[in-house]
Every structure is written in C-alpha cells, then in structure tokens.
Amino acid sequence: MSNKTKNGHGVQEEIHNKNPAEKSWLAYILIHYRWVFVCFFLLPLSLVYDIYHLARSWVIFKLNSAPKKHDERVKFVQQQVREWNQQGRSTPMCTARPGWQTISFRQPKYKKTLFNVKVNLIDVLEIDTEKKTVRVEPLVSMGQLSATLNPLGWTIPILPEMDDLTVGGLIMGTGIETSSHKHGLFQHICVSYELVMADGSAVKCSKEENSDLYYAIPWSYGTLGFLTAVEIEIIPALQFVRLEYQSVSSLDEACRVFQEQTLKDENNQFVEGLMFSLNRGVIMTANMVNSAEPGKLNVISRWYKPWFFKHVESFWGQEPHVEYIPTRDYFHRHSRSIFWEIQDIIPFGNHPVFRYLFGWMVPPKVSLLKLTQGETVKELYENNHFIQDMLVPMTTLKDALLCFEKEVKIYPVWLCPFKLPMAPGMLRSPSGKQEMYVDIGTYGVPKVNNFHPVETTRRVESFVRSVNGFQMLYADSYMTEAEFHSMFDHTLYNQMRKKYDCDKAFPRVYGKVSRAARD
C-alpha cells in the first residue's frame, strides 16, 4: 500500500486519480458483482474449512492428545524467543499468525518488519467440572468452544456470538455478549493466563499469583508476552433460551426500556437491543430454560431460516412476543449473517430461494473475504464503510445514539450492556466504582452525505472520550497517541512493561492498533 494511505487520504487521492469512466465501471463491478465470486468460490471453500477444523478439534479432544502436545508447543515458543534474545533483540516480536486470519477488517503492517514467533496453539486442553473451569489454548474459537462444551451441558458465562472469534483475541482485545451486564467483559470470566515472556520464561498469573500481570494482560494486544493458555469459568448450560421481543417506537422509549431491562430486572440473563432507525427498535431479554412451550420452538440455525436481524425486525410494531431457541443457536445467532454485513456482500442472501438452495454454506469466512478482497475492494471499503464498537456509560446512551445518527446513520445498531467492575488495568471507570456501560456496534455503509473515514471517525472518537468511553481495539482508530492514552489507563501497563523488560521485545499497544499500523 502506498505511503499516501498512511494519513487516511491516500485511498481517496488514488481513486480520484483514475478517470471517471474507469472509476465508475470498476466500482460498479466490484460492488454489484462480488457476490459471484463469494457464492461460487468462497462459500464452498469456507464450508470445507469449517468441516475440517471442527472434525479435527473433535478427534483431538476425544483422543485427549492436546494436553500432551501443549507442553511441546509452549517449549517451541520459548525456543523462538530465546533465539531472538541470542540474536541481539534488534527487532521487536509479534506472533507469526497471518493478518488475514483475524476477524478484524484490517491487516497489520507491522508483521512484515517484526520478528515473527510461531504460536500455533488451537486446542481445548481440559474441562474440570469440579472447579467449573475449562483450560484452552489462545486460538480456540467460540464456535469450537461451544461445540465442545454444550453437548456436555456446560458453557462459558460470556460467549461472544461470532464463531471465529478466538479466546486470545477476546482477551488481548476484548469480548462482550448479552450476558455481560451480569458478568462483565470476557476478561472478567478468565481465572488465569499462561504466557511466555520476553526472556523466554513461562509465567502463570491469576488474582492470587502475579496479580499485577493478570490485570495488565487484557487490552494489552500481545505487547506484554505471548499467551499460551487460559483458564475460563464455565456454568451449566440449559437446553433452550426463552427469548422475548419488545418493540420500541421512539428514542426515549428505547433508552428507557433498555435501561430498565438491564438495571432493574435482575432475572434477565441476556439483554440485547437492535435499533433499525433512531426511533424504531426491538429490545430482547432472554433466560436459559430446560423446556420449550409447544409450538414456540424456533431452530434459527437451520439453513433456510431468515437472517436473525431480519427475524428480529419482523417484531417491530407488534405486541411483545416470546419464542424458544436452542441454546447454542442463540449463542451464535448473528454468525450466519455476520451481524448484518452479509447483506452488503450477498444482497439477495435473505431471499427464501437463496436460503433454501445455498443457505447451508453461509456465511463465508471473514478471513477468506479479507484474503481475497484485493486492493481495489479494500480502497472502496476504506471510503464507504464504517465498522466500530464504542463502549459508553449507560447514562449517555441517548446522546451516543444521536451522535451515531448524525455522523454515520448506519442501521441496524447493536446495543449490548455490560458492567465495568472496579479493577486495575487499561479500563478504569472514572467514577471510582462499578458502572454499567453499553456497547454500541455500527457496521455497514454510512447513509450521510458528508462521511469521511478519517474526520468522521475522529469526531466519534472525540465524543466517546468526552463521555469517558472506550473504543474497541479491532476497529480503525485515528486517535493521536496522546488521545489514546487519555482514553485508556496505561499506569499498570507501563509498570509491567518495565518489570518484564518489554520495551525492546514488543511494540506498545498504540503501535499495533492505530490506523497507521494497519493496511
């Protein structure tokens, strides 16, 4: 990618350098006919990819071979780090995992210049039902984990819905789900972490052991050490989820109902909102149950079923509605439609004919979409796409929704509440006590006339900082380093960088997540 792209304006200049006829023709083909490549190549390839990895995980778990190989793999990571030390520590380290394999829209540029360490740790290691924990390697995905735990009657308290999200990514970045108002963020259900540090040593940390490192790891983006294993809480999983849909017809009503269901009704295990316009939305509450009322079971994972967000929209303007969904289906309800991003990739994908004929192959792998998108598609996305999750205090929800309406006007908007406990680390509540926040997720094509990827994002980031909110690190960040430091508390992080001699070993977080560090 050219140097122009680094300042956020290069893509626009490059597109403007094409003659109008070329721009128009190329853009039309890529936007309107990309589905041909996706449907006839990426969907079959994604299906084969998923079948292979699920089968492999099942066999390895049944043979109980993962724990035996885990120690060997960790020693291999240690060996590479020690070799880096012996070579003079001239270039910082990062994992060798290709950028296209992550679920983030961007690919990191820093992997091309840093010392790459192979960390191929992808298995479920142990389920301890007495301690109520599961021990996993960092590249275990949410789809893989739920497929392992649910048949045994267990789940993790927070299970982010996208199948391909990994444990390591959800810790080093962050993870959230509709149960987060009860349990916090993904980091808050983690009992312990195991890492290989800059000197090649293996360290374990928890609230009781190396607690300062334990609290510094979340949101550190792999800049304190290489994560090799995680111990996570598990809870019993019942067979179904009873899901209730409540229509709201104004912004004030949406904020009121969402806050009431989150803060006042302690019986709700899951709370979620989808806004389909500023004054039109559906608030959902749910609980796990062991039986379903006759005639009210909806197996939403079946290939011919409508995309979940479209199903939810059908309840707007209706009386409150109750249905029952298999628990694992509920956990991954947004996976088939990649929330609602798939409608921009396969515009007719929710048509009944397409669903019946090809729905069993959906969705395409996000990683394969990234790998095959090419520079021109990437440039078009750069100027016409906005993907952000902003975490703001619940008390500022109305103002935040008005901000997103003004700046991007993308719908649906995802609302997910979470509690932010008082604990050391990058995320600190300015109130000095536990506080309720909400994740506002916007993914899609802006419908405003004045959208610009840099200026628009910076205005949204400025609003989020002004209300003491946070930006998820997977998304484009155009903050300066000073602005980034004002959003995230680096006190403990800096102490750990010094204690474990990380300055020459790893980049800083900002150096990995700022827009300048990503293609």
UniProtKB/TrEMBL annotation:
Membrane topology: Single-pass membrane protein
Transmembrane helix found in the keyword field: yes
Main location: membrane
Pfam families: FAD_binding_4 (PF01565)
Domain annotation FAD-binding PCMH-type: ranges: 51-237
Subcellular location(s) per record: Membrane; Peroxisome
InterPro entries per the UniProt record, alphabetical: Diminuto-like (IPR040165), FAD-bd_PCMH (IPR016166), FAD-bd_PCMH-like_sf (IPR036318), FAD-bd_PCMH_sub2 (IPR016169), Oxid_FAD_bind_N (IPR006094)
Keyword Membrane included in the entry's annotation: yes
Protein name: Delta(24)-sterol reductase
EC number: 1.3.1.72
Transmembrane segments: 25-52
Reaction(s) this enzyme catalyzes, per UniProt: 5alpha-cholest-8-en-3beta-ol + NADP(+) = zymosterol + NADPH + H(+); lanosterol + NADPH + H(+) = 24,25-dihydrolanosterol + NADP(+)
Organism name: Daphnia magna
Highest classification ranks of the organism: Eukaryota, Metazoa, Ecdysozoa, Arthropoda, Crustacea
